[in-house]
Design brief:
Blueprint: H1 3-39, H2 46-82, H3 85-91, H4 96-138, E1 150-154, E2 157-165, E3 170-178, E4 186-197, E5 204-217, E6 220-236, H5 259-287, H6 306-319, H7 365-371, H8 387-427, H9 429-443, H10 448-475, H11 481-505, H12 515-520, H13 522-550
Antiparallel strand pairs: 1-2, 2-3, 3-4, 4-5, 5-6
Helix pairs in contact: 1-2, 1-4, 2-4, 2-9, 2-10, 4-8, 4-9, 5-6, 5-8, 8-10, 8-11, 9-11, 10-11
C-alpha cells in the first residue's frame, strides 16, 4: 500500500468513528424519549430494558452509517484543502481522483459489509424487538385509579370515581361500564365502595354499597332493566400481569425477513397473483358483451425479482461449491407369480379396493345404493331467481372478489420489492456519499466544521426525503420499486461526478473560501460573466465588419 493511500485512509478513520458514535447516540436518545412512556412504571427487569436498547441499535446504525461516511469525507478533505495539502499533492502530480480512489475502495467494501448487516443482523433484531415490545405492552404491574377520570381497568371494563382514599382504598360516587358481554352492556352505579386485589395479585375485587345495576333486557333492546342492591361484589380477572418473555413467534413482516426469505415469498405470491389473474380474466370474459373483441386484463407480474434472484441464486452458484445431485435408489424388480384362484373359491376383496363388474354380472337392489350414490334432495326456493340473472350476478361478484384480491396481492408484491431494493440502496449510499462529499469540501475549504454540519444536514434531509417518498409511491404502485429506491443514489452520484470534474478542471483547489464568501462574491461573478459575453460579442462584430471591408 502506498504512503499516500495509507495517509488518506488513516485520516478518515477518526472522523468516521466519531461521527458514527455521535449520530447513533443522538438518534438513540430521540428513540428512547419516544419510547419512555411505554417503558416507565411497568416494573420491567433490567435485562429486558438492556435487551430493548441493544435490539434498537441495528436499525439506528443502518441509518447513521451513510451519514457518518459523508461527515468523515467532508471533514477530512476540507481539512486537507484548508491546510494546502491538496495543493501540495497536485503540485507533486497526484490528482484529486487518485486521492479519492482508496476512499472509494474502502467505501465499496463498507457497502458490501452493510449489505450483509442489513440482510442478516437487522431483520433478526427487528423481529426480536417487535416480540419484546409486544411483551412490554402486555405488562400491567399495578392498578392506578384516578379521580374524575375514566379508568380503563381492562379493554372492556371501565370505571369512573368522584374521589378516592388511597389509605383505606375507599371510593365514592362510583360508575362502572361493563362491556364484557358484548351487546348486553351493563352499567353499575354505587354510592361508595372498596377495592382490593386477590391473593394472587392478578384479580380486582370491587365491593359496592347502596347502588343499582342498569342493563338492557336480553332479546329486547328497547327495554331497560334496573335492579337495586345494598351490598354487591364484582370481580374483574386479569387486571395485572407481570413481564413474561415470549419464546417464539413465527410471524415475520417484510422488515423482519432476509433477502432470500423475501425472494421465496415473492415467488410464491407471484404464482398466486397469476392464478387469481387467470380467474379474473375467466370471469370477465364471460361478462363481455357479444361482439366485443378486447378485454382489459390486469398487468402480469414477473415470476421472480431480479435483484434478489441475483443475490440469492446467482452469487451462491458462483462462489459456493455445487451440491452433488442425489441419485435415485435402484429398485430390484422380482417377477411375481400370477395368482391362480380355483374355480368356485371365494375371492376376498381388499379393503378400499374398487368393485369391478364383470360381463354378465347382476347387481342386487340393496347393492345398487352402494355403487350409485343417492342424489341429494332438491332444494326448493320460495322465489326462484331467473337463471340468466343469477349467473351474471355470480360472475360479477366473483370478478369483484378476484379484483380485490389482485389489488391486495399487488400491494404485497410491491412492498416486498421495495424492502429488497431499500436494503441495497441504503447500503450503497456509503459509496455514493464518498463520491459526493469531497468535491463539496474542496470547493469550500475554509468553511470548517460549519460547512460540514450544514452540508451534511441538507444532504441527509434531501436523501431521506427522496428515499421515504419513493417508498410511499412504490408501495402504492405509482412508481416502479427499483426506480423509487435508487433515484436518490442516482441523483447524488451524477451530482458528485459533475462536481468532481469541475474540481479537477481547476488549477488550485484551495482558492475558494467559505459559503459566506461564495455568496458575497456572486455579484462579481455575474459582472465578470457579463463582461466576457460583451467582449465575445464585440470580437464577433469586428470580424464581421472586417470581412465586409475586404469584400
Amino acid at each position: 500500500m502506498k504512503l499516500v493511500t495509507r495517509y488518506v485512509v488513516r485520516e478518515h478513520v477518526g472522523p468516521l468513528l466519531f461521527a458514527l458514535s455521535a449520530l447513533t447516540s443522538l438518534l438513540m436518545l430521540q428513540y428512547v424519549a419516544r419510547q419512555l412512556a411505554n417503558l416507565a412504571g411497568k416494573g420491567l427487569p433490567w435485562s429486558a430494558i438492556g435487551k430493548f436498547f441493544v435490539l434498537s441499535l441495528p436499525f439506528t446504525v443502518a441509518m447513521t452509517m451513510p451519514m457518518a461516511v459523508l461527515v468523515a469525507t467532508l471533514y477530512t478533505f476540507g481539512r486537507m484543502a484548508a491546510e494546502h495539502e491538496i495543493t501540495a499533492f497536485k503540485a507533486s502530480g497526484v490528482r484529486v481522483r487518485t486521492l479519492m480512489l482508496p476512499v472509494l475502495t474502502c467505501a465499496f467494501l463498507l457497502s458490501i459489509a452493510m449489505v450483509a448487516f442489513n440482510d442478516q443482523v437487522l431483520p433478526r433484531a427487528n423481529h426480536e424487538l417487535r416480540i419484546l415490545q409486544n411483551d412490554i405492552a402486555k405488562t400491567k404491574p399495578t392498578l392506578a385509579l384516578r379521580d374524575q377520570a375514566m379508568n380503563a381497568i381492562t379493554d372492556q371494563f371501565f370505571m369512573r370515581i368522584a374521589r378516592s382514599d388511597a389509605n383505606t382504598n375507599k371510593m365514592y360516587d362510583v360508575v362502572i361500564y361493563d362491556l364484557t358481554r358484548g351487546p348486553e352492556r351493563k352499567t353499575i352505579y354505587a354510592d361508595s365502595g372498596v377495592f382490593s386485589l386477590t391473593s394472587n395479585g392478578q384479580d380486582l375485587l370491587l365491593r359496592l354499597f347502596d347502588g343499582y345495576t342498569q342493563e338492557f333486557v336480553r332479546g329486547d333492546a328497547k327495554r331497560l332493566q334496573r335492579s337495586f342492591f345494598i351490598d354487591q361484589t364484582v370481580k374483574v380477572r386479569g387486571i395485572t400481569r407481570g413481564f413474561e418473555s415470549t419464546s417464539k413467534d413465527d410471524f415475520r413482516s417484510d422488515r423482519e425477513m432476509t433477502v432470500c426469505e423475501m425472494h421465496r415469498r415473492y415467488a410464491a405470491d407471484a404464482l398466486e397473483f397469476r392464478r387469481v389473474r387467470q380467474e379474473y380474466i375467466m370471469y370477465a370474459s364471460r361478462l363481455v358483451a357479444p361482439g366485443t373483441k378486447t378485454l382489459t386484463a390486469p398487468r402480469d407480474r414477473p415470476p421472480e425479482e431480479g435483484l434478489s434472484r441475483f443475490y440469492c441464486v446467482t452469487l451462491p452458484s458462483l462462489f459456493l461449491p455445487k451440491k452433488a445431485k442425489a441419485q435415485a435408489p435402484v429398485v430390484s424388480t422380482i417377477p411375481q407369480a400370477p395368482v391362480v384362484t380355483p374355480q368356485g373359491a371365494p375371492v376376498i376383496a381388499q379393503p378400499g379396493a374398487p368393485v369391478i363388474a364383470q360381463p354378465g354380472d347382476t347387481l342386487k337392489k340393496d347393492t345398487l345404493g352402494a355403487v350409485v350414490p343417492t342424489p341429494p334432495p332438491a332444494v326448493t326456493m320460495s322465489a326462484p331467481i331467473p337463471p340468466a340473472l343469477d349467473t351474471v350476478t355470480m360472475y360479477r361478484g366473483a370478478m369483484n372478489a378476484a379484483d380485490a384480491q389482485l389489488v391486495a396481492s399487488r400491494e404485497g408484491l410491491d412492498s416486498l420489492t421495495v424492502e429488497i431494493h431499500k436494503k441495497f440502496a441504503l447500503s450503497f449510499a456509503c459509496l455514493v456519499f464518498v463520491l459526493f462529499g469531497p468535491p463539496i469540501a474542496l470547493r469550500f475549504p475554509r468553511g470548517g466544521v460549519g460547512v460540514t454540519i450544514g452540508v451534511s444536514i441538507g444532504v441527509f434531509g434531501l436523501y431521506y426525503v427522496c428515499l421515504m417518498g419513493g417508498e410511499a409511491l412504490a408501495d402504492k404502485g405509482l412508481v416502479p420499486p427499483s426506480i423509487a429506491m435508487w433515484i436518490a443514489n442516482a441523483i447524488f452520484t451524477v451530482t458528485g461526478v459533475v462536481l468532481l470534474w469541475r474540481v479537477e478542471s481547476t488549477t488550485d483547489t484551495s482558492r475558494g473560501g467559505g459559503i459566506r464568501d461564495w455568496w458575497a462574491d456572486r455579484g462579481a461573478r455575474r459582472a465578470l460573466a457579463t463582461q466576457m459575453k460583451q467582449e465575445q460579442a464585440a470580437k464577433a462584430a469586428g470580424k464581421g465588419s472586417a470581412a465586409a471591408v475586404g469584400a
